[in-house]
Amino acid sequence: MRCCPGQVLRCLRLHWCCRRGRSKVPLWIRETLAYTRVLQRSLYYNSLTDSDVVFDSIFEPVFWMVDYITRRFGTVFVCLVVVLISSIVVIAYIVLLPLVLYTYSPLWIAWHLCFGNWIIVMIAFHYYKAAKTSPGFLQKEKCDRPFVSVCKKCILPKPARTHHCGICNRCILKMDHHCPWLNNCVGHFNHRYFFSFCLFMTLGCAYCSISGRDLFLNAYNALERFRHSDMEQPGIPVTGMGPLIGLLPVGQTDFQTAAPPYTLKERMIHKSIIYMWVLTSTAGLALGALTIWHALLISRGETSIERHVNKKENTRLAKRGRIYVNPFSYGRLDNWKVFLGVEKRSHWVTRVLLPSGHPPRGDGLTWDIFSVHHDVIPV
Question: 327 and 152 in contact (C-beta within 8 Å)?
């Protein structure tokens, strides 16, 4: 329903006629001010306006700048990840592997070789697939697919769990977030690769940090010891007839001895071990927290975006005395089965513990909203 300016003025004029005796301001001035206030309020008033809308409007320039930087430097972030992971692998093969072969027992050597190479393969495979696999874009062609809303940016009908990415400038099926370290969105078709990469990367960092702790302490103590030895002037006191027969220059009482040999190779080995341990420990803590967070979301059948949406819905319905139930959650175990693509027992090995390029369940356009009453794998 639309109101013309004339109707607004007539309504305001009737209201002011009742108050004419109480105000000395001329009628035409009051009409002009009232009409100006109506125009001003029509520019920003909305019944759906809340604190979130105001916050997004204020920080829109900041969001735009972050999206622009992420879009432009996505390739740089990917190269940085590749360089850091490659440096750890090079140090492991060149520096640590000879130490393992000379100091550990055959059983421990076999364990380190098998686990280390397996974790490297899993990290490389899942990172490549997460970065190169399309997350699932909403097609721009019109079709008879079901939808729940219309995208304000693409002006296209959006299916359930689909959201618009400001960096990719596309609608993503089951969008979780845009990852700058992948230079790609995390969506329906690469969500499993992203989580697997985070999981195996955390395991690899924990493996390097725990197994390399003693090597780190030895390398750090060696650097400190040789640094102090360079600062100090070692010597042996010369007494008796030594000064008289000219063993020392005039005024010198100690015979200077040569410092222990500390080659450049040893220094680089020690610094490489320290670099590896510090990098894997810090990255393991950060990635471990991220992996735990995403594991909780997967257990609930949610994405990062849906977590905020469901929280608002839960609060809104709680005020009405009702309980919100996530329609896309099938139970914790079934959520993991659907997410990992596990359909039988052997898939826990072939699709989870080994590299697997199997597609996810469904097409990302339609979803089952009823709980699964039977387990894919009997428990």
Answer: no
- Closest among 141, 137, 146, 147 to 172, alpha carbons compared: 137
State the pLDDT at residue 229.
Answer: 65
Residue 179 annotated to the active site: yes
pLDDT at 3 over 80: no
According to the model, what pLDDT value does residue 258 have? 52
Write the CA distances from 110 to 12, 113, 121, 150, 353, integer angstroms.
88, 5, 17, 57, 19
Biggest CA-to-CA distance, the chain: 124
Catalytic residue from among 171, 179, 185, 205: 179
**Contact, 201 vs 217, CB < 8 A?**
no
Q: What is the pTM of this model?
A: 0.76
H or E stretch including 179?
strand 177-179
Instruction: Name the nearest CA neighbour of 162 among 370, 362, 350.
Output: 362
| Cβ within 8 Å of residue 317, ≥6 positions away | 323, 324
Which of the residue ranges 40-44, 118-122, 165-169 would you say has the lowest mean pLDDT?
Answer: 40-44
Structure tokens at 37: 């206030």
CB 352 within 8 A of CB 342: yes
**Are 31 and 9 in contact, with CB atoms under 8 Å apart?**
yes
Query: How large is the average pLDDT for residues 308-319?
Result: 90
Asked if pLDDT for residue 87 goes beyond 60, the answer is yes
Give 8-13's long-range contacts (Cβ < 8 A, gap of 24+): 8/35, 8/38, 9/35
